[in-house]
């Protein structure tokens, strides 16, 4: 298998995003991805074992870039509250800027086989670890309460962010996703109590 770097590899990953977003995971044929990437069908198999491998690799590449950018941005912010706001903002910004990627990550990844979802889950754990670090720092610094389970808090944060993006997609992006950052942060920090 060829090294997973270079222009052709990146072209295939980007083409896969476009094709899967347009046709759906199950209708996205490797030949369509190859055509969209301007490579021969066989070239795909130099980099990927099959379509499932393309999907897993796509998520690994895009999530890896996001985690790297988010980790760098968060390292420059001291306040855990501001870190949480920045994490939400970056999540929304990255998907608002790439509607096709948003469709793939929010809709199509969930349509895949159990084995693929398992691999996706392993990749997602890296992002969840970043969230855990923000929450733990908030508890340690006294910015967040210390009487809750970090994993439950993370599930609540990720679930809220995730559902907000999915709803935005399902409503055909009829409102600016970025306008949701502060209201969500407020609810996460202050809950429903007066």
Protein architecture, described:
GO terms for molecular function: DNA-binding transcription factor activity; transcription cis-regulatory region binding. The protein is an all-alpha fold and 194 residues long. It has one domain (52-190): Tetracycline Repressor, domain 2, CATH 1.10.357. Helices cover 72% and strands 0% of the residues. The longest helix has 27 residues, at 114-140. The termini are far apart.
Task: Name the descriptors.
single chain, 194 residues, mainly alpha, Tetracycline Repressor, domain 2, 9 helices, elongated
What is the fold's blueprint, element by element?
Elements: H1 7-23, H2 30-37, H3 41-47, H4 51-75, H5 80-96, H6 99-106, H7 114-140, H8 150-170, H9 181-190
Structural class: mainly alpha
- H/E element sequence: HHHHHHHHH
Mean pLDDT over all positions: 94
Low-confidence parts lasting 5 or more residues at pLDDT below 50? none
CATH architecture: Orthogonal Bundle
- As a whole number of angstroms, the C-alpha radius of gyration is 18 Å
Helix content: over 70%
Task: Count the E strands.
Answer: 0
CATH superfamily: Tetracycline Repressor, domain 2
Strand content: under 5%
Query: What would you call the shape?
Result: elongated
Largest sheet properties:
none
- Put simply, the count of helices is 9
End-to-end separation: 59 Å
CATH topology type:
Tetracycline Repressor, domain 2
How many domain units?
Answer: 1
CATH level-1 class: Mainly Alpha
Protein name: Transcriptional regulator, TetR family
Domain HTH tetR-type: 6-66
DNA-binding region: 29-48
Organism: Melghirimyces thermohalophilus
């Amino acid at each position: 298998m060829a090294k997973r770097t270079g222009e052709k590899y990146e072209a295939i990953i980007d083409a896969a995003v476009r094709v899967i977003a347009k046709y759906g995971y199950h209708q996205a044929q490797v030949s369509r991805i190859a055509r969209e990437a301007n490579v021969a069908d066989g070239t795909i198999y130099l980099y990927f074992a099959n379509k499932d491998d393309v999907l897993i690799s796509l998520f690994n590449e895009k999530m890896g870039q996001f985690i790297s950018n988010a980790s760098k941005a968060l390292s420059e912010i001291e306040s855990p509250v501001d870190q949480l706001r920045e994490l939400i903002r970056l999540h929304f910004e990255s998907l608002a800027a790439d509607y096709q990627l948003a469709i793939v990550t929010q809709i199509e990844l969930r349509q895949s086989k159990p084995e693929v979802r398992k691999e996706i889950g392993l990749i997602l754990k890296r992002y969840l670890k970043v969230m855990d670090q923000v929450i733990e720092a908030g508890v340690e610094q006294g910015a967040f309460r210390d009487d809750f389970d970090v994993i439950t808090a993370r599930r609540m944060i990720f679930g809220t962010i995730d559902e907000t993006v999915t709803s935005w997609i399902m409503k055909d992006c009829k409102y600016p996703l970025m306008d949701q950052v502060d209201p969500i942060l407020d609810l996460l920090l202050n809950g429903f109590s007066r």
